[in-house]
Write a structure and sequence with these properties.
Chain lengths: 346, 348
């Protein structure tokens, strides 16, 4: 078998016409100057007409190399991949269907693995992560420890532990009151059991309303939302990178945006799930679930106050883009809770 | 003794008789679709392990179908090289992520270490990319130094943006110039002498879509008031305007550099890429990829690359130029793979 082309010596762009011959002894190059280079070791073949040799020389064939030559130097896996790459409409349709199916399988597998990973993830590690995140927020000045009397803080902590225990949860809850003018009336759940509640929230709500918000945060901790979201986010990022993110920075950023949007959807679902958990926890402690709805309304009014003072439409719930938010709108949350309580489902 | 060599004619001085060659891209979407589907399928089946080989295959396809004087570019890296680099990158990222979850001060230490490592990573990445690319059996090379890379790729751009965006074109010009002048093709070095004015003009052109989107936002508010419809419209316009601005700026700067780019005294380059046309290509590609759930990626990639090739030209001083390469030490793929995965690959 033979083919003509240009042969380049190592480290030079100088080329001469040559004839490549492949036989049982290997590849040999017959050059226009009459010399021959025997038994050249092929490093790789690119696009079926360019041969790079281990000694640094290079051969560009005038036309596509015959398949027999390519098969001679391509490994079996490489030949199989080449066969996969050859396009035909029928093959293209089959591949697309297989690809969609494999993504669905991957997605199902990710859901299963997510449950397994969350189940097996050591609680001590989760707690360390939560404590570390809380302490980092303190160090960065996002919030600070409250000046509230320690006795009152201990009481709140005991109440939180009681809510969790009465609901049948085996959690190590640790409630801290924080001071943050920037955050306002709010509460946070950190992985592993740390709950932070702002002074503003305590001042805004009555006792049972405050307990209902704490119950919501306990719901996040019991359902391990932070860990589940982290595992799902990682899996989706990998999936999106494989599917969309290869070789084009703009499409890679589009893929990042799509994963981020999906994570926000998961965040909103987690909030609704924590709302349902809050109702369960409240009922287990004989606290009326309507207190949670009342708490949400007060928080909504509090958030809208600065806008209404300026005579503006409230930005908290007024026709904003819900699809790009970490939380569902308060109106939606209240609607879901009222429907669930009304139907006896919650 | 008098010098009897005749001075070069005007035609010789300005290479008026020399042909201007386009970078010819001979790939097509149909062929690349087959490669892309195989790449994605094998990457999914191997849980991402095949990505390294997929990257090699992709580059070999695009390089191998980019011809100058009927000779293609060659990509020399192997999948195994990139895979080893990726494993190291994965371990580095996992170490950082785990440390940041459990011990924030530790992650700060690692971050500071990364800042000092950054110029080294950039240099290794550029050198790897260069040495893995050849034309007519001569490879590119990168000769940047640690301190210069730290200054031109990191410190000065950050300083420029923090002082005010008006310094950004100057920082871009210096960065591009550094990038060009420290690359070589074999033993010949590239040179470029772009003007500051060209980069400032690119910056002004890039500001136009943002200004237009801003003006259109006022109109949207006037027509629809503060409603979901107006917010959605404004968000979409601003997103498109930002993409267009970034693309127009990048292409304007690229044109400014390439038009003065030379290789020794033997080769000249030209760029005729239209920023508006290229912006349209990018934006319509994004829409097509999003609407097709990614299945039009091969078409979009070929379309973009084909346009870039058509707009890039080269002129050789004579037909019998011979370039020589140099022996250099082997370069590992870690830095290149880190740059690829973390998205800070330096290119123009």
């Amino acid at each position: 078998m033979g083919v003509s082309g240009h042969y380049f010596l190592p480290l030079s762009s100088f080329s001469q016409r040559a004839y490549l011959v492949v036989d049982e002894r290997g590849a040999h190059m017959h050059l226009a100057d009459g010399s021959t280079r025997e038994r050249l070791s092929v490093k790789f073949i690119q696009e079926h007409s360019n041969m790079q040799f281990d000694d640094g020389s290079y051969f560009k064939a005038d036309e596509t190399l015959p398949m027999q030559i390519i098969r001679e130097f391509h490994s079996t896996p490489r030949q199989l991949i080449s066969a996969l790459e050859r396009f035909s409409l029928a093959k293209g349709c089959v591949w697309i269907l297989l690809l969609i199916m494999s993504f669905l399988v991957y997605r199902l597998a990710l859901n299963t693995m997510e449950d397994v990973i969350v189940e097996r993830f050591p609680e001590t590690w989760e707690r360390s992560i939560g404590v570390n995140a809380f302490e980092t927020a303190i160090e960065l000045g996002v919030f600070s420890h409250s000046d509230m009397p320690i006795k009152r803080q201990i009481e709140l902590n005991q109440v939180a532990e009681m809510l969790s225990a009465r609901a049948g949860y085996d959690l190590d809850i640790s409630l801290t009151v924080i001071d943050s003018a920037v955050i306002g009336a709010n509460a946070f759940a950190f992985p592993g059991g740390t709950i932070a509640v702002t002074e503003e929230l305590i001042a805004l709500l009555d006792h049972d309303e405050l307990l209902s918000v704490i119950a919501h945060e306990i719901g996040h901790i019991e359902r391990r939302h932070a860990l589940k979201n982290a595992v799902e986010s990682f899996g989706l990022t990998m999936l999106a990178y494989v599917w969309l993110g290869q070789g084009d920075i703009v499409i890679q950023r589009l893929s990042d945006f799509m994963v981020h949007t999906w994570n926000l959807k998961n965040s909103r679902e987690a909030e609704l799930e924590a709302d349902r958990a809050a109702i369960e926890i409240l009922r287990a402690s004989d606290i009326r679930p309507e207190n949670f709805i009342s708490a949400l309304r007060r928080l909504q009014e509090s958030a809208c106050e600065p806008y209404e003072r300026e005579g503006l439409e409230c930005g908290e719930d007024a026709d904003r883009a819900d699809w790009y938010s970490t939380h569902p709108s308060t109106d939606l949350r209240i609607q879901v809770l009222e429907e669930g309580i009304g139907k006896g489902e919650l | 003794m008098t010098d009897t060599t005749a001075p070069p004619s005007i035609r010789e001085m300005f290479w008026l008789d020399r042909a201007v060659e386009r970078f010819k891209f001979t790939g097509d979407a149909k062929t690349y679709f087959g490669i892309w589907v195989a790449n994605v399928t094998l990457s999914v089946v191997t849980l991402g392990a095949y990505l390294a080989w997929a990257k090699v295959r992709r580059r070999q396809y695009f390089y191998g179908n980019t011809n100058i004087e009927s000779f293609p570019l060659i990509y020399h890296a192997s999948g195994l090289q990139l895979f080893k680099g990726r494993v190291l990158v994965f371990l580095a990222i996992a170490t950082y992520s785990t440390t940041s979850y459990f011990w924030t001060p530790g992650s700060v230490i690692l971050l500071v270490a990364f800042v000092f490592l950054y110029p080294w990573l950039v240099n290794r990445s550029l050198r790897f990319n260069g040495r893995m690319t050849s034309w007519k059996n001569v490879r590119l090379n990168w000769r940047g130094t640690y301190w210069k890379s730290l200054w031109f790729f990191a410190l000065f751009p950050i300083l420029a943006v923090s002082v005010g965006l008006w310094l950004l074109p100057a920082a871009t010009k210096l960065k591009y110039e550094y990038y060009a002048r420290h690359h070589s093709f074999g033993t010949l070095e590239f040179n470029a002498t772009p003007r500051y004015l060209s980069f400032y003009i690119a910056f002004l052109y890039a500001a136009l879509p943002i200004a237009a989107a801003g003006a259109a936002s006022f109109v949207a508010f006037a027509l629809f008031g503060q409603s979901a419809a107006s917010y959605a419209l404004i968000a979409a316009m601003l997103a498109l305007a930002l993409v267009a601005a970034l693309v127009i700026y990048a292409i304007g700067c690229r044109n400014a550099l390439v038009r003065t780019l030379t290789l020794g005294d033997s080769v000249r380059f030209r760029s005729t890429i239209n920023p508006l046309t290229y912006s349209w290509i990018i934006i319509s590609n994004i829409i097509a990829v999003a609407l097709s759930l990614g299945f039009l990626i091969p078409w979009a990639s070929v379309r973009k690359y084909s346009y870039l090739s058509k707009g890039t030209k080269v002129q050789f001083k004579s037909d019998d130029l011979v370039f020589r390469d140099e022996q250099t030490e082997r370069v590992g793929a870690f830095a290149q793979e880190f740059a690829d995965i973390e998205g800070f690959e330096i290119s123009i």
